[in-house]
Amino acid sequence: EYAAYLARLLKLPVMTTGGYGQTPEDSEGYAAAWDLEQEGLEKVLVEATSRNTLENAYNAKALAQENGFA
Asked: Terminal CA-to-CA distance of the chain, rounded, Å?
C-alpha cells in the first residue's frame, strides 16, 4: 500500500523483483506487482528471472535501462 502511495505521490516508476519458484509467474516479483496493480498502479516493471542476488541486480538494471529509467 505504501509503495503505491509513494509512486503516485512522487510520480515515480515502480519495479518489483524476486526470483521464481516453479515458474516466473509464481515469483515474489510478480506477486508484489499484482498487489501494486490492485492498488491502482498501471505500469509495474517486474524482474522475476533471477536465480540469485547478483543476477537480480544485473537484470533489474537492464530492465530499468530498457524502459528509460537508468
From this structure: 25
